[in-house]
Amino acid sequence: MDKQVRNTREIVRLAKLKTKHTRENVDKIISKLSLEGKTINFNTVAKEANVSKSWLYKESDIRQRIESLRNRQKTYSASKSKKSSRSEEVLIKTLKTRIKELEGENIKLRDQIQKLYGDLYTKD
User: Fold this and answer.
1) Contact predicate 16/4, CB 8 Å
2) Total count of domains within the chain
3) Is 4 exposed, middle or buried (0-12, 13-18, 19+ CB in 10 A)?
4) Residues 6+ apart with CB under 8 A from 69
5) 1, part of any domain
6) Is 77 inside a domain boundary?
7) pLDDT digits (tens), the chain, 124 positions
8) Is residue 2 a part of any domain in this protein?
9) Does some domain include residue 4?
């Protein structure tokens, strides 16, 4: 009896096609997260693209892209927090002023309500 030769060309072709589609999907997800300003790391990309983190680590070009974007976001966040401390102080001061104004208005409205209740009581 002769050994039967298995034809695996179609399986290999489909596996390569699946890998190609997965890579395209991961690229789209990374671009989407980047455009939306969301956090880019292995967890978020794996979750959004519905792939495993180990697959992301295994694909060296995707791994490098995620790592570089993650590092860029860390650098941007650090520089952003330094600049925003002054603007946060201004915002806090503005909000405190607004709270005082609203509390004063609230007191005036309570006084008006009390006077109206008094007027209603005396009319009866």
Assistant:
1) no
2) 1
3) exposed
4) 30, 34, 40
5) no
6) yes
7) 567 778 889 999 999 999 999 999 999 999 888 888 888 999 999 999 999 999 999 998 999 999 988 888 887 766 665 556 777 888 888 889 889 999 999 999 999 999 998 888 887 6
8) no
9) no
